[in-house]
Fold this protein.
Amino acid sequence: QVQLVESGGGLAQPGGSLRLSCAASGFIFGIYAMNWYRQAPGKEREFVANISLSGIRTAYADSVKGRFTISRDNAKNTVYLQMNSLKFEDTAVYYCNGHDSWGQGTQVTVSS
């Protein structure tokens, strides 16, 4: 069955960095665009980043543009989210999305 498994979350200081990974299985990864979303406490889930099938085209929410980078390795069936210059407001559960499926999420906490 389709599985998306996120990893790499944790605690970071403001200005710090984290790299999230999402390992996909159960479908042909290379023919699907992939997305990252996040949900902060008390807020709705929001779009963070998108990457095309080949990885050539990417799109970002304005709130993360210039700080986050989405990438993918189709040979490893994995999509990544490099998060730099982290801010308090980046604290959220981050979800991988693709093939109409969602991962279980990984917690990112930005705190001093």
Observations:
- The chain has a mean pLDDT of 97.
